[in-house]
Amino acid sequence: MKPACSYAATHAASLADPAAFWLSQAAHLHWHTPPAEALAQDANGFYRWFGGGQLNTCYLCLDHHVQHGRATQPALIYDSPVTHTQRTYPYAELLDLTARFAGGLREIGVGLGDRVIIYMPNVPEALIAMLACARLGAVHSVVFGGFAPHELAVRIDDAQPRAIVCASGGLEFDRIILYKPLVDEALAKARHQPAHVVVFQRDFAPADLQPGRDLDYQTLLRAAPVPAVPVPATHPLYILYTSGTTGRPKGVVREHGGHAVALRFSMEAIYDVAPGEVMFAGSDIGWAVGSSYIVYGPLLRGCTTVLFEGKPVRTPDAGTFWRLIEQHQIRVMFTAPTAIRAIKKEDPEGLLARKYDLSSLRHLFLAGERCDPATYDWAQQLLGVPIIDHWWQTESGWPMLATPMGLEGRPAPRAGSAGHPVPGYDVQILDEAGQPVPAGTTGLVAVRLPLPPGCLPTLWHDDARFREAYLAPYPGYYLSGDGGYRDPEGYTYIMGRVDDVINVAGHRLSTGEIEEILAGHPAVAECAVLGIADDLRGQLPVGVVVLKDGQTIGEEALEQELVAAVRARIGALACFRQALVVKRLPKTRSGKILRKTLRQIADGEQFTLPSTIDDPVILDEIRAGMQRRSIGSAFQPPEPI
Ligand code: COA
Ligand code: AMP
Questions:
Q1: Mutate to test the pocket of ligand 2, among 391, 417, 486, 499 (most ligand atoms within 8 A of CB)
Q2: What is the Cα–Cα distance from 521 to 576, expressed in whole angstroms?
Q3: I want to staple 125 with a disulfide (CB 3.0 to 4.6 A). Which of 66, 200, 345, 358 is the partner?
Q4: Looking at the structure, do residues 439 and 585 belong to the same domain, yes or no?
Q5: How confident is the model over 210-244, as pLDDT tens digits?
Q6: CA of 399 to the centre of ligand 2 (A)
Q7: CATH number for position 276
Q8: How confident is the model over 80-124, as pLDDT tens digits?
């Protein structure tokens, strides 16, 4: 065992002297100007990494590798069963396309610090657009293609982009989703108007272009290539919006320097992928997992990344991921437990996996939601490699708890646990008063400051919200919003959110935002939205609504209208499908809706009748209503204890 690379020694060194630890990690990258100092606090008191340093993330991802012998090595393998396309892009070709697209963006006025929204499915052109923005020092914001025009408009108004790059369409299984009309609709709703919309035309979905404003993606590619612009380490690389507890999403900011240093480190220490090896993250470029481990992580490390346009099932079958492993010799794979549950549902015996040679696979990482032990065990038995559940958030951009597979002496992964703190993270479980709790006690999961490089330094143009949401509740800590506990052996278990955020198929949604939509219906007096347990997607949102006096709309008609409203405002990805009409909502005597009790009723959990409830009888009525409407996955009416 090499002590310098043992998990315990590395973690201890990262906390004992974070500045020294991360400066030594930064030295693995090419800096145009090396950082003068590792860590400083800005005027807000927020921590900033590598001040004075200058670098460019696109340069590190592409130019550096081309100059160091990887020109002909595949950088990107695009595998799209929905369009029956496969294409490999060597590093030199990806660099050429990116440099030319960056030239095209510059010709339409995109420069240092300008924002560019990217609204595209998993296609190489999206990845090229992201890297091209990075090359210019422009700030990209990828918006997941499943979001409806309203959500896109909210992000346009917040980010105020100079340009939007979109695809004309995408394919959901065999259904065509026309993206360009969604962009047009979003722009009709948005106050801010970008100068240009750049459209990547797909042959199955040709889009009309508005003269003057809209441009063909291919036109920009005809520009002369431009070099990478060195930017300060603290210059923003991208904004990624994520759900908060209200309808207004949070713009998580990622900076060039800390992000590059952290992701390169994670590829080595956590994922254990060597340069030249193949990594596949089965996610979407619109999520943090996609940005970090489809795009930047593998390219920073000189690996080959697999960009998959399809689903784990029905494109064409539940063996798709296993085919990818064999065909592309994937060493490390990353996906959400939902994807494994979807595969298990369609192929419970794992027969399709036996059709393929999976011997290249070294480990499977899972994140996005807690991996339930049944899914963990199934994957373990099927694949016969270590399965690593690891915990992170859009805010961190890379794992906070994991089993670091590149470090010696790491504790073995264990079903149900997200593992141990990653080097750089001092993860603590706190009680409501902000004091660390003993092992075995559930509490609030927090990280002692400073956060390591790569984590959000603030929210886009909203320092106050950053402070209020994450730092103010417990001074000296970053509050994650998750609850969990640590066992006596040091394994940490993340058990779910303690706020109004839910996780549907690994997608983070705000119940508060859905409540705002339901409350906007003319017949609804008040409502509560719960995230109830679901076998496939982990959680599903369900509405419990009270009608205004005198309203006579039937329950089913109202449900249909509410479902349509959520689909139109947030998008189909919300999976909002059920609403129950009740006479009253259960509340405390001070008027607080007992959402947790409602969820426990739906999930068939035992619960303690809150002593402050104003009218306990209402719970029996709601339970009966849920039974009548088959709301709740494994519904077994509980007795209050
Ligand atoms: N564009 C447009 N619509 C989209 C979309 C996109 N990019 N992604 C999803 N949708 C739509 C779907 O078509 C579906 O619409 P419908 O209600 O009209 O059928 C709806 O949003 C719900 O999507 P989803 O929950 O993904 O359901 P699904 O049946 O399409 O697929 C899974 C189910 C489990 C296969 C899928 O959720 C999956 O692969 N999950 C993996 C999770 C993941 O990658 N998480 C990212 C974080 S790691
Ligand atoms: P997102 O920002 O969309 O990546 O979602 C982050 C949230 O997903 C976290 O706050 C957790 O609630 C949940 N999450 C992510 N990974 C895990 C995990 N391994 N175990 C439990 N919850 C997780």
A1: 391
A2: 15
A3: 200
A4: no
A5: 999 999 999 999 999 999 999 999 999 999 999 88
A6: 10
A7: 3.40.50.12780
A8: 999 999 999 999 999 999 999 999 999 999 999 999 999 999 999
